[in-house]
Structure formats: structure tokens, C-alpha cells
Write a structure and sequence with these properties.
Layout lengths: L8 H23 L4 E4 L4 H14 L3 E7 L5 H14 L2 E6 L6 H4 L5 H20 L4 E2 L13 H7 L5 H4 L4 H11 L24 H16 L5 E6 L2 E6 L4 H4 L2 H14 L3 E4 L11 H5 L3
Parallel strand pairs: 1-2, 1-4, 2-3, 6-7
Antiparallel strand pairs: 5-6
Helix pairs in contact: 1-2, 2-8, 5-6, 9-11
Length: 288
């Protein structure tokens, strides 16, 4: 007697069909465009958008990476390597959000000023090159998150093809895996300024300390890690499966010594582990 398929087989097929439909929608959207600038950081989302845009539009897709003190050098190297390996038309520009007092003051909408600076530069580039569309890697999951940078995107008419196709983060990872993009399982990333609590000034010194401290953790084999900068205290957020290793005496000593050398007086491990946007928690506690 023929066995019935597993109970979830139909759900799996339906999920695959839905993902195929969304992928087709993404390709269809980009096919309608004459040319595009992709705001390309090299992260999971923008990497997939750059890949699909390049497949559809060829040299009419320009992938632009913005370099600034808040952009980790590790991410820049990833973006450059990926662009080279997959044939993206790629350029690097320099943005000057650190020259804006409102950005350095680090208000709750700091990201707005960063994106405003980025899209100001990209809009100028688009006019110079005769490119009608600027696109970013925002996805469907970003709709419910606190992302003031999206306001700047709306003001500049920036499109979000991944969001328009209703693609979630997990679906973007799966499409990236299918495409052979090494970013498919890359941990979530954000600018270095996101490690500094709101209303604490963003400075070059703090950004360099954070970047150096996170490099120490990666060199020790930690994959999911954030160093939250609280003046003289480094608060480490690690993936749940990695926290026990950080508490091993030898590893703990190595971390403590290296981060003290960088300039931190105290090193702590957040027992709740890494969580996206953890510094937003303070906004809910701050008096209005």
C-alpha cells in the first residue's frame, strides 16, 4: 500500500510555491526598470537585491557602498569581495553623517540623519548618471521594527523591491542560499553607532573601540556578537549557544585582557544574549 506523505508535505510545497511567486515578483519589478542604484552594504538583504538587479539589468544596475566611520571595515571587505565574485558594477562613496551635529547627538531617530545623508549623496549620483531609481534592501519584516531611516527613504522616493515582493528575512536567506551567495547565513548586521546608547554622543573613538572589541570576539570564534558601549563598560551580547564558552575561565580572561587593552575598564556579559535592537528597550523606559 502506498504510504501517505508526511502531514506537513503539502505545507512545504505550498511554502516553496509561495517563495517562487515572491521571487518572480521581485524579478518582475526589476525588469520594469531602465536602471537602478542599489544602496549596497554587503549584508544579507542588499546582497540579494544587488544580485538580482545585476542578473536582470546587467550594467544598468549600479551597486553603491557608502563608507564612513560607522561602517565596519569587515563589512566593506565583504561587500567588495561579493561584488567582485558575482560581477556587480560596484562603486564606493564616502558619506559625512559624522559631520552632522544631530547625528553625533545620537537621538532616538539617529538613523534618519544617517539615511538622509546617504540618500542625499545617492540622489546626486543618480542625477549625474541619469539613473531614475534608488533602491534599498528593506524587507517585509522591517515594517514592524523601529526604523526611522525609512522616513528618509520615503522622503527621497527610495524604493524597496524586497519589501514590495513581500519577502521576509528568512525567505531572503533561502533565495540567497539558492543563488550561492555566501551571505545567506550571515548574522544580522548594523552600523557601529547602533552599539552606543541613545543620547550618548557618537564619536570616532567610541566607534573604533567597538569595532576593535568585536574583532576580538570574532577572532576568538564568536559568530553572533555585539559589543554595546556604555562609556567604560563593554556589555557583550552573544548568541545563546555561545554564551557558555565565553564564561570559560581561559576565554573570559582572554576577552577581558583584550578589551581592557582597547580601553574598557569593565567587561560584562548580558545574560539575555544577543537580540535585535536591544538599545531600543531604553526608549520605552525614558520619560516622554
Amino acid at each position: 500500500m502506498k504510504q501517505a506523505p508526511p502531514a506537513d508535505a503539502s505545507d512545504t510545497r505550498a511554502g516553496a510555491a509561495e517563495l517562487d511567486r515572491k521571487e518572480a515578483a521581485l524579478y518582475g519589478t526589476l525588469t520594469e526598470l531602465p536602471s537602478i542604484i542599489v544602496a549596497y552594504s554587503g549584508g544579507v538583504d542588499s546582497a540579494l537585491l544587488a544580485y538580482v538587479a545585476t542578473r536582470v539589468l546587467g550594467d544598468q544596475a549600479l551597486c553603491v557602498t557608502a563608507e564612513s566611520p560607522s561602517y565596519p571595515d569587515r563589512h566593506r571587505q565583504m561587500a567588495v569581495s561579493l561584488a567582485s565574485n558575482f560581477g556587480f558594477r560596484h562603486e564606493i562613496i564616502h558619506t559625512a553623517e559624522m559631520a552632522r551635529p544631530e547625528y553625533r547627538a545620537n537621538p532616538a531617530n539617529r538613523c534618519y540623519f544617517c539615511k538622509h545623508e546617504l540618500y542625499t549623496r545617492l540622489s546626486t549620483l543618480a542625477r549625474e548618471r541619469g539613473i531614475p531609481i534608488i533602491a534599498d534592501g528593506s524587507n517585509a519584516d522591517d515594517r514592524g521594527d523601529y526604523r526611522p531611516g525609512r522616513q528618509a527613504a520615503r522622503e527621497f522616493g527610495v524604493r524597496s523591491p524586497l519589501d514590495e515582493a513581500d519577502l521576509t528575512k528568512d525567505e531572503i536567506r533561502e533565495l540567497s542560499r539558492r543563488a550561492g551567495l555566501p551571505t545567506w547565513d550571515e548574522p544580522a548586521s548594523a552600523c557601529l553607532s547602533s552599539r552606543i546608547p541613545y543620547f550618548s554622543e557618537v564619536t570616532d573613538e567610541k566607534l573604533r573601540m567597538i569595532e576593535s572589541a568585536e574583532a576580538v570576539l570574532r577572532d576568538l570564534g564568536f559568530r553572533i556578537c555585539r559589543v554595546r558601549h556604555h562609556d567604560t563598560i563593554a556589555r557583550l551580547e552573544l548568541g545563546p549557544e555561545e554564551m557558555s564558552r565565553a564564561a570559560h575561565p581561559d576565554t573570559a580572561a582572554a576577552i577581558d585582557q583584550a578589551l581592557r587593552h582597547i580601553g574598557y575598564a569593565h567587561v560584562t556579559i548580558d545574560l539575555r544574549g544577543y537580540r535585535l535592537g536591544s538599545l531600543n528597550e531604553a526608549l520605552r523606559l525614558r520619560p516622554v
